[in-house]
Specification:
Chain lengths: 325, 425
């Protein structure tokens, strides 16, 4: 086991959460601690220490009640990097199709020794619901349109790498804010770390009273482009939309898509994020996605580190609550 | 001839505008003296320090039988009603099969008679199978005992059908009950649309969905001369529309539930399904308007909107669980805390909304303590503090937002037709 900075023991603050349900529930200090731990894991990996035995013997359950490729893979790999065993569960071909309830499924996995549960679910609050009824630590891997904390954290980690700190920076979240759990987690995280947040999208995709969260609302991307440090292009969630929220993909791309022309109006060092999977030509054009300002692939690598840090901190907190070291 | 004396209780009878201490004498199930000087009878109930009111009437209860006895039966639901102080309840037609024909209505009445708890008045469906398409056999339902018509909580979207329902039910002088919502605007919604739905990412229902439909219903009632009873008011704008329609002489009445006077959309932050109700909890400003509407009489009735569900339908994800909470056993203590102790309503006004007003809307002879009236009577210990423990409910449904809350008032004794049907232990 290589030497590493253990922020659980030696951090400036104490990590006290048993679950990771959303960034709404974390303080700025806790977010920073988790990001610092993620940076540390990333550094270790870069130095060739990609396999750590910190969670040896721990069973991590991946409960994905909604399709996911990257988050699921990322969590699975994060658990393996920490030497945990993993149990994968998805509804198709499982007992869910036989009518077993969400809670019973989780309790069964718990009986198999799962002590950390990664939960992706289409219903807002489903991880909260579970956390109140089982012993295992619950990691929200996206619940409906509520939160996606690890995505929020990896976005923050990626931005922090570029800017050093977020205080005073202006970040635009562009696109389908209404149906985006990534937007909500980003807003909480960015506000707590002191950034100015602009949400920008068609009026139909900006939910009511969002300005009460302390964000600026815009419907004009060209207007805000020159004054932002960072832009996070949210995916158009075709599967979450109840009806027609905008007239056509073409019109959306025309008004809110990031392209070379808009990039020329932006600051020289603008940073471009997209949580993916991206719809090329919709949220952003290929030249922008693959261009020098894009940190999209960096986000993916950071996602792994953030998920390792999340699993690690929750595991340590669990040991502490059980009175072990 | 059997006699029963309720001694020295505080009589609150809205019909005679009476609020004073007196003794009631009942003979053969009928009130024969409302200010009796007798001290003895076959049975004497000492009501000193208690409040004696006409048996409460709940206009909106779902009993789930036939079809979903795991949630509630007519036996368990009427037992819960008695425990809540109700001597008459009107039950929704959303059983399986629904009460959309005479035999179904008569079945409800028969089961209620077998249970021997409280009286049950069926509400018939407006449309066959509650589908909102073809009128149910309203005339024969009336003969089977249906007091009013309603498609339960399903908004009747088709204005043509609604218009004909008004015209048709008017022949029998029966009201239509409606849950006014524009379906397209609430599709998928689980809570009020506003700041908290934005925060939580929960699909939501805007107030406008209710306001628009109230306007339609009032307009059709005005056009046809029919009677509309609007169920479950939640919005400030809705209350105002009813107030205005009433002043124009439109035959419109409205009700509210106690829980909508307590909770707002903020409660959903807990993601707890005990706050998932339809229509949804709204804002403080809406609650203020509902209280004002109760005060000035715009809102005529308080009802439980009792929605019992078996445990397995309750312990699941927010979108998997149906809307609704039980209410029969909490209406009274909730109203005492929220309306009496705050001075929003006095006892006469509260009891009016729980007795004679629903009786008038349903067209039933009940809801008063005057001489000659059937002795449906509820005796209340209003000062007694109660902590709501759903495990003690007689209803099979246990989900309530009042769980664990300290409220005030306990039902002491309930008489139906002069017979003691419930006594608190």
């Amino acid at each position: 086991m290589p030497q590493f900075h253990d922020y659980f023991n030696d951090g400036p603050v104490k990590w006290t959460s048993k679950h990771l349900l959303g960034l709404e529930y974390l303080t700025a200090e806790e977010i920073t601690l988790l990001l610092d731990q993620a940076v540390e894991f990333k550094r270790l990996a870069a130095n060739g220490n990609s396999k750590l035995n910190l969670l040896k013997g721990v069973v991590v359950g991946n409960l994905f009640f909604e399709p996911s490729t990257r988050t699921r893979t990322s969590f699975g790999l994060a658990a393996k990097r920490l030497s945990a065993d993993t149990v994968d569960f998805s509804p198709s071909g499982s007992s869910l199709s036989k009518g077993e309830s969400f809670l019973d499924t989780a309790r069964n996995l718990e009986a198999m020794g799962v002590t950390l549960m990664v939960v992706r679910h289409k219903t807002p609050g489903a991880p909260d619901f579970l956390s109140q009824r089982i012993e295992a630590g619950v990691l929200n891997a996206g619940d409906g349109t509520h939160e996606h904390p690890t995505q929020g954290l990896l976005d923050l980690m990626t931005m922090r790498e570029q800017f050093g700190q977020m205080q005073g920076r202006t970040v635009a979240l562009v696109g389908d804010i209404r149906h985006s759990r990534v937007a909500r987690s980003n807003i909480w995280g960015l506000k707590k770390l002191g950034a100015h947040v602009i949400v920008c999208g068609p009026a139909t995709l900006i939910p009511p009273e969002i300005e009460k969260l302390g964000v600026e609302v815009s419907h004009d991307l060209d207007d805000i482009i020159p004054r932002i440090d960072c832009i996070n292009l949210l995916r158009i969630q075709f599967e979450r939309q109840r009806g027609a929220f905008f007239p056509s993909i073409d019109e959306y791309a025309h008004l809110f898509g990031m392209n070379g022309q808009r990039l020329e109006q932006a600051r020289k060092n603008i940073v471009i994020l997209a949580p993916g999977p991206i719809n090329r030509g919709v949220e952003l054009t290929p030249d922008v996605a693959d261009g020098e300002h894009s940190v999209i692939l960096e986000q993916v690598s950071n996602g792994l580190a953030v998920r390792m840090a999340s699993l690690y901190l929750l595991y340590r907190r669990q040991l502490e609550l059980r009175g072990e070291q | 001839m059997s006699s029963l004396l309720i001694k020295q209780g505080r009589i609150v009878d809205p019909v005679s505008r009476r609020d004073e201490v007196a003794s009631l004498l009942i003979e053969d199930g009928v009130i024969v003296d409302v200010d009796s000087s007798r001290t003895d009878a076959d049975r004497v109930i000492d009501a000193t320090g208690k409040i004696v009111v006409p048996g409460l009437i709940d206009m909106r209860v779902s009993l789930r039988e036939p079809g979903h006895k795991e949630d509630e039966t007519i036996f368990s639901g009427t037992a819960a009603a008695l425990a809540g102080g109700f001597t008459t309840i009107a039950c929704m037609p959303d059983t399986d099969p629904p009460v959309d024909n005479r035999a179904a209505a008569e079945f409800v009445i028969l089961q209620a008679e077998r249970a021997r708890h409280c009286r049950v008045v069926p509400i018939g469906a407006i449309t066959k199978q509650l589908k909102g398409e073809e009128l149910a056999e309203i005339g024969q339902l009336v003969e089977g005992g249906a007091a009013a018509f309603c498609d339960a909580k399903r908004p009747l979207a088709n204005s043509e059908v609604m218009r004909r329902a008004f015209e048709y039910s008017k022949m029998m002088d029966r009201p239509l009950f409606h849950s006014p919502q524009v379906l397209e605007l609430i599709a998928g919604g689980m809570m009020h649309e506003g700041y908290y739905s934005t925060l939580l990412g929960i699909p939501a229902m805007p107030s406008a969905a209710e306001t628009i439909m109230i306007h339609r219903d009032i307009t059709l009632a005005e056009m046809t001369g029919g009677r509309i009873h609007l169920m479950g008011m939640t919005t400030r704008q809705g209350v105002e529309q009813i107030r205005q329609a009433r002043s124009r002489g439109v035959s419109v009445t409205a009700d509210v539930t106690p829980h909508h006077l307590f909770f707002t959309d903020e409660s959903m932050k807990s993601f707890d399904s005990k706050y998932k109700v339809f229509p949804p909890f709204r804002t403080e400003s809406d609650i203020d308007a509902l209280l004002a509407g109760l005060q000035d009489g715009t809102i005529d009735v308080i009802c439980s909107d009792h929605q019992p569900f078996a445990e397995e339908k309750v312990i699941c994800e927010l979108d998997q669980t149906p809307f609704g909470v039980v209410g029969l056993e909490t209406v009274l203590p909730a109203c005492i805390i929220r309306l009496i102790q705050t001075g929003v309503l006095d006892w006469l006004a509260l009891i009016e909304k729980l007795t004679i007003n629903p009786a008038k809307i349903l067209g039933i002879e009940a809801g008063t303590l005057t001489e000659g009236a059937i002795a449906d009577i509820t005796i209340i210990d209003a000062e007694r503090e109660v902590t709501i423990n759903p495990d003690q409910f007689l209803s099979k449904g246990k989900r309530t937002p009042f769980a664990g809350m300290k409220l005030s008032g306990k039902v002491q004794t309930v008489l139906v037709g002069g017979e003691v049907r419930y006594e608190a232990v």
